[in-house]
């Protein structure tokens, strides 16, 4: 079987976000890899910044005792469906939102901490 990257790219262009999300999960499971950026690389990039930071990543560090409430808060913050929100919470520590303004990041952190989660802004 010949590998035709152009056909694959065309198929990906026509796929829905949900289909692409399922594809990423299937690839992660099949090849035992993660699509998440390595923490060491992100940490090295952040350490080199001399100016003040204006965009933050909201990371769910620990779920806490009220997992269902945390899932609901993640759904509200991200707009994800129930299954995707649950998967994100189950994989903690995980990034809930990337590249958000400080005020929005603080609001998200407050909502998650209100329901018992531990959150880190990076």
From TrEMBL:
One of its GO terms (biological process) is translation. The keyword Nucleotide-binding does not apply. InterPro entries: Ribosomal_bL12, Ribosomal_bL12_C, Ribosomal_bL12_C/ClpS-like, Ribosomal_bL12_oligo, Ribosomal_bL12_oligo_N_sf. Residues 5-50 form the Large ribosomal subunit protein bL12 oligomerization domain. One of its GO terms (molecular function) is mRNA binding. Keywords: Ribonucleoprotein, Ribosomal protein. One of its GO terms (cellular component) is cytosolic large ribosomal subunit. The keyword GTP-binding does not apply. Pfam families: Ribosomal_L12, Ribosomal_L12_N. Transmembrane segments: none annotated. Residues 56-122 form the Large ribosomal subunit protein bL12 C-terminal domain. Belongs to the bacterial ribosomal protein bL12 family. Forms part of the ribosomal stalk which helps the ribosome interact with GTP-bound translation factors. Is thus essential for accurate translation. Homodimer. Part of the ribosomal stalk of the 50S ribosomal subunit. Forms a multimeric L10(L12)X complex, where L10 forms an elongated spine to which 2 to 4 L12 dimers bind in a sequential fashion. Binds GTP-bound translation factors. This is Large ribosomal subunit protein bL12.
């Amino acid at each position: 079987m010949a590998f035709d990257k152009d056909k694959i790219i065309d198929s990906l262009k026509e796929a829905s976000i949900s289909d692409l999300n399922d594809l990423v999960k299937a690839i992660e499971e099949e090849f035992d890899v993660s699509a998440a950026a390595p923490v060491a690389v992100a940490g090295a990039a952040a350490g080199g910044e001399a100016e003040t930071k204006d965009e933050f990543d909201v990371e769910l560090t620990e779920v806490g005792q009220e997992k269902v409430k945390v899932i609901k808060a993640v759904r509200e913050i991200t707009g994800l469906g129930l299954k995707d929100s649950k998967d994100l919470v189950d994989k903690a520590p995980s990034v809930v939102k990337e590249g958000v303004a400080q005020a929005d990041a603080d609001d998200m952190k407050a909502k998650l901490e209100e329901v018992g989660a531990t959150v880190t802004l990076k």
